[in-house]
Amino acid sequence: MMMKPYTHTIGTSKYVEQPHKEIKIFTEECRFSILEPITKIISYGVQNFVLKLSVISELSVVCTRVFSRDRDKLLVCRVLVYELVQALRTKTTIPDDNLFILIQFVLQGHGCRLVLPPQLSGGELASTCMDAREIAAGAVDCMRPHLPDMIELLQDPHLLNKIKGSVSKSIVNRNLICLNEDTLGAIVKGGIAQYVAMELALEHSRGRQDRAQPARHMTPWISTSLPGCREVCECVSRVRVVSWLVMGALCNATQAPHPSHPGLQPPHQPVPQDATCHITDYIQVLLLHFFYMHQI
User: Which InterPro entries does the UniProt entry name for this protein (predicted)?
Assistant: First the structure.
């Protein structure tokens, strides 16, 4: 039955009262429906525009507060990590500034900061907020399954050349300064080294604290001398990885704040001390090969 509007007069004015209409109440399902389109917009923005670290950090915080399921909480972080991994694998092309921002987005979950040249050190990456570690904790969790891929990138001697050919060459997409291609590749690979060094340092620290549960070593050749691994190419690859890990650990250690308690030292040791003999064996093989090559 339809309700008809009726009129009544107050003084000389007439008012027409309309029947009440239904009010739509947005429930949890409505928030789920907009989550997937937002992630697609984020993916498009990462590949075509220069993002701001504060914006993607705020989006991650909003998703964590609004949604209740872990899958929905980390969806924005998972999309950003996916775009970073695809760009590092040279599967997609993104502006080179976004490479810095996405790497910093992951590093700040460990309390670290991407090391940049002095010309770029005054940008947005340097102004991290107080709770940056809590903001990017989800990014660290989403990035951890890709740790073997990051170690493989450190072993790749052609990564710098791949980055040269994959990053955007358009000056319009560069918000800070036009970097030399070698400088760009070195910063990106250095950021990967910082992340891998911190993850391995945490793994090594957990392994020392919990003897009952052995650490899941991503680089077993560091701790044990594997048989049949005396090839020169293999030794070169492993020494290369150790060099990048040491450099990443040093970069993290120089930026670490001084602990309030002397016993609360942050973990910055990706290579255990008992692995020195094995690394020495690899270097000795390289030196012997170099000596024999010059004897011929």
Answer: UNC79
